[in-house]
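About this split. The held-out portion is used to measure sequence recovery: a designer receives only the structure tokens and must propose an amino acid at every position. Recovery is the fraction of positions where the proposal matches the reference. Here is one held-out target exactly as it appears in the evaluation file.
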């Protein structure tokens, strides 16, 4: 009597889908390159977000005043989004997955929309 072990093919045993799952992927260095270039493009806005967080939490820039945690949290949130969006875009580029592209687009929208609104309303 034959044993009733798994009769799956070798391709279906691997979690990545075997050769067929890897054929749709791009080289990892493409994602790394996209991430580094995007971080370089966002370096100055990330610096300003870090400065806004530090000034908001401490209340000190040139002179000290009362701290404003709201501005500090805005700076930290902006910094986190600007750090995460290029990573999400790099993963989306390598994996070719719609879910990663949607996540990267949402993170990019969190960066672009407030800047556009500030420009249109004259706040920036």
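Reference sequence for scoring:
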């Amino acid at each position: 009597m034959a044993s009733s072990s798994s009769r799956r093919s070798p391709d279906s045993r691997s979690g990545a889908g075997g050769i067929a799952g890897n054929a749709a992927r791009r080289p990892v260095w493409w994602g790394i390159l996209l991430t580094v270039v995007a971080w370089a493009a966002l370096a100055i806005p990330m610096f300003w977000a870090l400065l806004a967080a530090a000034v908001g939490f401490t209340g000190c820039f040139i002179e000290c005043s009362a701290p404003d945690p709201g501005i500090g949290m805005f700076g930290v949130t902006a910094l986190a989004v600007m750090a995460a969006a290029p990573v999400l875009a790099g993963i989306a580029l390598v994996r070719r997955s719609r879910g990663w592209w949607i996540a990267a687009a949402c993170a990019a929208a969190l960066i672009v929309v407030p800047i556009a609104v500030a420009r249109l309303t004259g706040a920036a």
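Annotator remark: Confidence is low (pLDDT under 50) at residues 9-20.
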